[in-house]
Design brief:
The chain is an alpha+beta fold and 178 residues long. Helix content is 31%, strand content 29%. The chain has five helices and six strands, in the order αβααβββββαα. The chain has helices at residues 4-13, 45-63, 65-72, 141-147, 159-170; strands at 26-31, 75-85, 94-104, 109-116, 122-134, 137-139. Strands 1, 2, 3, 4, 5 and 6 form a six-stranded antiparallel β-sheet that branches. The longest helix is centred in the N-terminal third of the chain and has 19 residues, at 45-63. It is globular. InterPro entries: HotDog_dom_sf, THEM6_lcsJ_thioesterase. It holds the Pfam family 4HBT_2. It comes from Salinihabitans flavidus.
Length: 178
Amino acid sequence: MYPFVRMFHQLWRHRRDPPLPLTGVHVSHHRCWPWDIDMWVELNNGRTLTLYDLGRIPLARRVGLIAALRANRWGLTMAGVSVRYRRRIRTFERVTMTSRALCWDARFIYLEQAMWKADGACANHALYRSAVTGPGGLVPPATVLAAMGQPEASPPMPDWVQAWVAAEATRPWPPEMS
């Protein structure tokens, strides 16, 4: 089940946080509860993706995206993700999550998120490709940024993000399943 209570808690907890610039970092704190674990008694990889929502939505509010989505009746979707899992997160362990927009192109906004353990080790790191949607399909980031009253120029796309975008462009869709 989706963690609605936890989402509302995060939105409430960060309701008075100051606005962030478009590429500002939102920091939040989370705990791995018993219902987040898998049979190996660690944070389930699928649940990790769900918990990342708890950082992205408050980030979107703080940069002004949520207001633009509501004003224009747009939606927000994830169009791809690449995750590196490096350290286990055990039951009741507390993590610090960082979330930020890295850059954008003509179609997508690229977001970076990470979960950090108390000892400073990065447990996992995600690169998301997100899209704003409207009745006609994808809304170009330039249109979204204009609605937010923000400059349209993206920061330079890091090489590793460019490589991921290029790799994704070669991936067949729909999958070639036999």
